[in-house]
Design a protein that fits this description.
Layout (H helix, E strand, L loop, with lengths): L15 H32 L11 H6 L1 H33 L6 H15 L8 H23 L1 H12 L1 H21 L2 H8 L3 H14 L1 H37 L5 H39 L7 H9 L3 H25 L12 E4 L12 H9 L4 E8 L5 E3 L6 H4 L10 H4 L20 H8 L4 E6 L8 H11 L6 E5 L2 H10 L4 E6 L14 E5 L5 H9 L3 E5 L4 H10 L3 E4 L2 H9 L5 H13 L1
Parallel strand pairs: 1-2, 1-9, 2-4, 4-5, 5-6, 6-7, 7-8, 8-9
Antiparallel strand pairs: 2-3
Length: about 600
C-alpha cells in the first residue's frame, strides 16, 4: 500500500487543548487505579513467597513463583486494558477533530468508551489489548527512561546489561524488535476505531500500510518526537534549576543541598508521569494524523456519529465522573495508609535514617530532634522506646536517666509524672534547655504523615508489656504502614509478627559473624557498619532480607556503604549522608554549585 490520501502538510489538528486536558486527567486516573492494585498484588506476591523484600539477587526466583506470575498477569491485564481504553479514546478524539467536528470533551470521552467496549464484544479483539500495551510502552519509553534508570531494580538491570557486551546486544535487539513491531502495529487501533474490524485484520492492514509508507512514517515520527523530546528535556532542566534557585533564597544554607536533592527526586517522579502523558499524546496523535493522511478520505462514519449521540447521555457522563471520584478517594486512602507507589522502597535507592532523630544537632530522642529529621528530609527517624514504672512508653536510649537528665535512677524505677519535668536538652546546648522526654504517643502524633519511624524496642526484665503497648499505640494512630520495628531482642520481633505480620521488623546486631540470615521473623538486619561486607549484603539480599547499617557518620564509611548497596543508612547527620549518596547522580553538579554559593553568602 503506497503513500496516498491528502497532503500531510495541509492538515491542522484542532482541539489540542481538549486532548491535552483529557490526557492529563486520564494519566491521573491511570495512576489512581493502578497504584493501589499494584501495591496490593505486590504485597500479596511477597506474602506468598519466602521473601520479605525483593532484591536483585532473589528477583529471578521471585518472578518464577506461580503466585507472582499470576499477580503479574493480573496487573499487566489491568494496565493493558487501561492503555487500550486510553488509546481508543485518543484516536477517537483525533478522528473527530481531523474530520472538522466540534464536540465537548466529556461527549468525546463517552464516544471513545462506547467504541472501546463495542470492539471488545468480539473475543478475538482482545488481541488489541497487548498491542496497545506494547505500542504505549515504546511510545513513552524515550520520555520516561530517565526515571526508569533512576529506580533501583530496573535501573540496575539496565546498567548491568549495558556493562556486558552480550547482554547489551540482547537488550538492544529486544528493544529494536519492540520498536519494529510497534511501528507495524501502530495503525491497528486507528483501523479498528475507523472501521470496527477485527483485531487480526486490523493488524494486517496496519502492517501493510506501514510497509508501503515506512520511510515517510518513520521520518515523521522521528522528527516530531525529537522536537517534543527536546522541549520536554528543556522543561525538566527548567524545573530543577528553578527549584534550586527557589531553595537558595528560602532554605537555610546548611540544608540547601539535601533539600534540593530530595526535591529533585520528586521532580523526576512527576516529570516522569508527565513524560508518559506527553509520549502517548504525541505518538498517538502522529499515528492518527498519518492514518488520516495515508488512508483515502471518507465521510465521517455514521456509526461514530451514532456513538456521539449516545455520548450525550448525562447519566453515563455523571457515571464516569463518579467512578473517577471514587478512584481518587480510593487512591488517597491507600496512599495515606501505605505511601505512594511512586516511592516504593523496592524501587528506591538507599534509605536514610536519622539516628535518634537528628541527634547531631538536637537532643536525642526528643521532639525537636524529630522535627529536625523532618526538616532534613530523612526517610526515617530512629527512636528508642522504654517503659516507665507506671507503664507509660517514652523515648529513651539508656536505661539510666543520668546521662541525658542528670537523674541517677533507672527508667523502670520512676513514674512518668516524675520525669516529665526533667531537662533532657541542656546537656546539648542552652538552646534546648527545658526540653523534656516525650512519650511515644507524642512522637507518633508529631510524625504522622510527615516521616516514617524506626521504633527500637529496648526490652528488659522489668518491661513486661512494652511490645504490646507499642503495638497498641501504632494501631490507635494507624501507623502500621509508616513504621518499622527493630530490637536486639528477637522475641520482641516474634511478638510483633504474630500480631501484625505486615509490619517490617529488624534484628539489631552488634556483630555479624556466622550464619544469622535464617531468622524467620526478621525482615532486615541492623548491623554496625564496620561488620558489613559484600558477602553479608549479597547473602541477605539473596534471601530477601535487607541490611541497615549503623551508625554511619564519616564520609569514607558513607561511601563504602554506598558501594556495598546496603538498604538503609542510620546516621546522626542525614544531610551529609544525602550529599554523599547522591553526589554521583545527575543534577548534583548544580547542587554542588548551590552549596558553594550558599556557603559564600
Amino acid at each position: 500500500m503506497g503513500r496516498r490520501g491528502r497532503r500531510y502538510g495541509s492538515l491542522r489538528l484542532r482541539g489540542n487543548g481538549s486532548v491535552l486536558l483529557f490526557e492529563l486527567l486520564y494519566q491521573a486516573v491511570f495512576f489512581t487505579a493502578v497504584s493501589p492494585v499494584f501495591g496490593v498484588l505486590f504485597r500479596l506476591a511477597l506474602w506468598c513467597s519466602p521473601y520479605s523484600y525483593v532484591t536483585l539477587q532473589n528477583l529471578p526466583a521471585f518472578l518464577r513463583r506461580p503466585v507472582t506470575l499470576l499477580c503479574l498477569f493480573v496487573f499487566l491485564a489491568l494496565a493493558a486494558f487501561l492503555m487500550y481504553l486510553e488509546t481508543v479514546c485518543l484516536y477517537t478524539f483525533f478522528e473527530i477533530h481531523l474530520h472538522g467536528r466540534k464536540i465537548r470533551m466529556m461527549r468525546a470521552v463517552m464516544t471513545g468508551i462506547i467504541t472501546a467496549v463495542r470492539l471488545l464484544r468480539k473475543p478475538k479483539n482482545l488481541l488489541l489489548l497487548p498491542v496497545s500495551l506494547m505500542c504505549s510502552f515504546v511510545f513513552v519509553l524515550p520520555y520516561t527512561i530517565l526515571y526508569i534508570v533512576r529506580t533501583r531494580i530496573p535501573g540496575y538491570i539496565i546498567q548491568s546489561a549495558f556493562g556486558e557486551p552480550a547482554a547489551a546486544a540482547a537488550l538492544t535487539v529486544v528493544l529494536l524488535l519492540l520498536l519494529y513491531f510497534s511501528l507495524r502495529g501502530m495503525f491497528a487501533i486507528p483501523f479498528a476505531v475507523h472501521t470496527g474490524g477485527g483485531a487480526v485484520s486490523c493488524l494486517k492492514e496496519s502492517a501493510a500500510l506501514f510497509r508501503g509508507n515506512a520511510g515517510f512514517a518513520v521520518r515523521r515520527m522521528l522528527l516530531v518526537n525529537l522536537f517534543f523530546l527536546s522541549a520536554y528535556i528543556l522543561f525538566y532542566v527548567f524545573c530543577i534549576v528553578t527549584a534550586g534557585v527557589v531553595l537558595f533564597f528560602f532554605v537555610d544554607k546548611s540544608l540547601v543541598v539535601a533539600v534540593y536533592l530530595s526535591v529533585m527526586e520528586r521532580i523526576e517522579v512527576y516529570t516522569g508521569v508527565l513524560g508518559m502523558a506527553l509520549g502517548l499524546l504525541v505518538n498517538c496523535g502522529q499515528a492518527a494524523v498519518l492514518f488520516h493522511t495515508l488512508v483515502p478520505a471518507e465521510e465521517y462514519p455514521e456509526e461514530r456519529a451514532e456513538y456521539e449521540e449516545k455520548g450525550k447521555n448525562r447519566r453515563q457522563r455523571w457515571g464516569v465522573v463518579l467512578v473517577l471520584v471514587l478512584l481518587g478517594v480510593m487512591n488517597t486512602v491507600y496512599a495515606a495508609r501505605n505511601g505512594s507507589i511512586l516511592s516504593q522502597e523496592t524501587l528506591a535507592g538507599i534509605g536514610i535514617t536519622a539516628h535518634r532523630g537528628a541527634s547531631f544537632d538536637a537532643p536525642e530522642n526528643t521532639l525537636p530532634a524529630l522535627e529536625l529529621a523532618i526538616e532534613y528530609m530523612a526517610d526515617y527517624a530512629e527512636i528508642d522506646v522504654q517503659m516507665t514504672k507506671d507503664g507509660v512508653i517514652v523515648l529513651l536510649h539508656d536505661s539510666s536517666l543520668r546521662r541525658t537528665t542528670g537523674l541517677r535512677k533507672y527508667i523502670w524505677d520512676v513514674t512518668y509524672e516524675e520525669i516529665r519535668e526533667l531537662d533532657t536538652g541542656s546537656y546539648v546546648s542552652r538552646e534546648y534547655a527545658g526540653v523534656g522526654i516525650p512519650t511515644l504517643e507524642e512522637a507518633l502524633i508529631l510524625c504522622k504523615g510527615r516521616i516514617n519511624l524506626n521504633i527500637e524496642i529496648k526490652t528488659n526484665a522489668r518491661s513486661s508489656g512494652l511490645t504490646a503497648g507499642v503495638l497498641e499505640l501504632i494501631e490507635e494512630y494507624d501507623f502500621e504502614n509508616q513504621c518499622i520495628i527493630s530490637s536486639t531482642d528477637y522475641n520482641a520481633l516474634v511478638e510483633v509478627k504474630e500480631s501484625y505480620p505486615g509490619i517490617k521488623t529488624g534484628y539489631i546486631m552488634g556483630l555479624a559473624y556466622g550464619y544469622f540470615y535464617d531468622r524467620e521473623y526478621a525482615d532486615f538486619f541492623s548491623i554496625k557498619s564496620s561488620f558489613i561486607t559484600d558477602s553479608v549484603v549479597r547473602i541477605a539480599h539473596s534471601l530477601g532480607k535487607e541490611i541497615h547499617a549503623w551508625t554511619v557518620n564519616t564520609e569514607g564509611e558513607l561511601e563504602r556503604m554506598k558501594q556495598l548497596q546496603v538498604d538503609n543508612i542510620i546516621t546522626d547527620r542525614p544531610v551529609r549522608a544525602r550529599e554523599v549518596l547522591y553526589r554521583d547522580e545527575f543534577g548534583y553538579g548544580f547542587a554542588g554549585l548551590l552549596k558553594v554559593i550558599s556557603e559564600a553568602r
